[in-house]
Amino acid sequence: MKTILPVIAVLILCLTLSTAFVADTTTNDGYSIGDIAAPIDLLNVDGKRVSYADYPNARGFIVIFTCNTCPYAVASEDRINALDAEFKPKGYPVIAINPNDPALQPADTYELMQKKAAEKKFSFPYLYDKTNTVYAQYGATKTPHVYILQKEKTGDLTVAYIGAIDDNVRDADNVNERFAANAVNELLAGKEVSVKETRAIGCSVKQAK
Amino acid sequence: MKRLAFIVCAWAVLASCVDNNVKKIGEAVVEEPEKEVATPASLVTIPSYDFSEFEAKYLQPEDDMTYVINFWATWCKPCIEEMPAFESLRKNYEAKKVKVVLVSLDLPKLLEKQVIPFVEKKGLQSEVILLDDPDANTWIPKVAEEWSGAIPATLIIKGDRSQFYEQSFTYETLEEAVNSI
């Protein structure tokens, strides 16, 4: 019995570890429409931590996973500032999160995020996902990747929209459908979002497998 | 580390194989620049297609070939890293009815400035085309319902069977995927 117990203990430990490992790598699962988004607590480029609870008057959030150098993220910078300018006063501020691991994408260090935010005059928090957990929790696979959260009466934040900012990530001048803006406008009007999920080409999130 | 070593080796092999004068990219027409032209025309031409043209030409094969269709862009680092695997596959499986198509998603305005110089510099031998269709929300699910839009991504088609991968490949994993279709 004395020899068996440690063996069983090791076996259980192995099983637990392997399960944990599997759970960590299934990054594509993430949130679906209607899921409740977990709280965040991430470092902003101004050195302060940001959480959803910092916005007691928000009616929801436009959460955008984006980064410093992906050409499609760069092409979206002005549009993200514009979304924040349009919807923050209406209760849907933009929260940007950089999901890339700077060890794999040296252009996405915290310092270079600060530089980017200053240069492009980001009017919204630009958060550093240091523990590399938030993007996986959401299921973000690329940049830019938008999640619109709606605050319920209970205070829960439910995922109301997942996808692209609009139908032409390459060229802001030739946009026909502003998917994200349309979704927020529908939520503000008390309607259900009509186009809940859209897709666009983006840069894959740079994280170790 | 093993993967890195493979990539380095593969590039070295590829680089040594490149003929500096003549580069033929799949079915692309290779032309000598005319002498009268002040700025010499590129040796490489890359055709552009919108999605319906691309779909008709590549996604509905009527032959018994296996098509390995890789979506990439010059700005996509992991795409560039896995490219030697696709080039090696093209070479090693040429006689086994496997065709590699590298579909660039670069901005059309960068075709001459970035894509063609990249293809020339790397001496890519696989067929390279540009998919120029801004309405990605409409065409992405037509390539694969499960595709989020992140690249690199690869679609392997044989007859009416197809398998989609939103991931990076090594030569070994790519070979395995091709053989499993």
Low-confidence stretches of chain B: 6-39
Strand content of chain B: 15-25%
Q: Identify the most extensive interface between protein chains.
A: A-B, 26 and 20 residues
How do the helices and strands follow one another from N- to C-terminus of chain A? HEEEHEHEHEEEHE
Sheet having the most strands of chain A:
7 strands, mixed
State the gist of this model:
Chain A is α+β, with helices and mostly antiparallel strands and 209 residues long. Chain A is 31% helix and 18% strand. Chain B has helices spanning 2-17, 51-59, 77-92, 111-122, 136-143, 171-180; strands at residues 48-49, 66-72, 98-104, 127-131, 150-151, 153-158, 161-165.
Overview of this structure, please?
The complex is a heterodimer of chains A (209) and B (181). Chain A is α+β, with helices and mostly antiparallel strands. Chain A has one domain: Glutaredoxin (3-Layer(aba) Sandwich), CATH 3.40.30.10. Chain A is built from five helices and nine strands, in the order αβββαβαβαβββαβ. Chain A has helices at 4-25, 71-87, 110-119, 134-138, 179-188; strands at 42-44, 49-50, 60-65, 94-98, 126-128, 142-143, 145-151, 157-163, 202-204. In chain A, the strands form two sheets. Chain A has a seven-stranded mixed β-sheet with strand order 2-1-5-4-3-7-8, with helices on one face. In chain A, strands 6-9 form a two-stranded antiparallel sheet. In chain A, β7 (145-151) and β8 (157-163) form a beta hairpin. The longest helix of chain A has 22 residues, at 4-25. Chain A is globular, with a radius of gyration of 19 Å. Chain B is α/β, with parallel strands linked by helices. Chain B has one domain: 3-Layer(aba) Sandwich (Glutaredoxin). Chain B is built from six helices and seven strands; from the N terminus they run αβαβαβαβαβββα. Chain B has helices at 2-17, 51-59, 77-92, 111-122, 136-143, 171-180; strands at residues 48-49, 66-72, 98-104, 127-131, 150-151, 153-158, 161-165. The model of chain B is unreliable at 6-39 (pLDDT under 50). Chain A binds chain B through residues 28, 70-71, 105, 141-142, 145, 163-164, 167-171, 174, 177, 179, 198-206, and chain B through 73, 75-78, 105, 107, 134-137, 140-141, 147-152, 166. β9 of chain A pairs parallel with β5 of chain B.
